[in-house]
Amino acid sequence: MILCMRSALFMAWFLIVTAILSLIFLPVLILPRGATAWLARLWSRLTFWGLKFFADIDWQIRGVPPKGPVLVASKHMSMWDTLALYLALGSPAIVLKRELLRIPFYGWFVWKATAIAIDRSAGPSALRKMSHAAQAVLGEGRPILIFPEGTRKKPGAAPDYKPGVAGLYGMLGVECVPVALNSGVHWTGFLKRPGTIVLEFLESIPPGLKRAAFMALLEERIETATSRLLAP
What we know:
Number of domains: 1
Helix content: 40-55%
Oligomer: single chain
């Protein structure tokens, strides 16, 4: 009962904050990208304040968040991940499905924030377009964030890493920083369970590995660390 009440209070806070900032965001669309990035960080901080105040969920970072032109590949369990990584990485470009750009307000925001959209129906040409967009982001000295499984996974679910991350890694020729987390334990849909979410930046993978070796190493590092974070 208490858990549901606290979760409901947080949801009310989240919806109110999101509605207000969405209205503020509309005129920000005409401003440079930096204004959108600032508003995104504000939204994330206010969301996390509400999580702490209403749901008693805190968070911590382990390891050192990378700076500059790198590829960041993260485990994905909840909406929390995107907010936290946006704060931790500064102003990353996020690789996401093209359909998300059609969502009012959210889609407009991620487009303005320089998201890298994937059209999965386009086949190999989609990877080439993604690579061109990613090169432009790296040229600005910013990191690229990708969720290599392509969707959220429940804690303990079997991993399913997609080849797109290896294709991007090979084309860009930059190091890749794996990320593990345990957000799915505390952010479970509507219910928000008290505790501390850990976001852990792992040892980076140098550029130049063969596709199979890269995929095996990436999965091994993320899944090993994630299992450790999920352990009771």
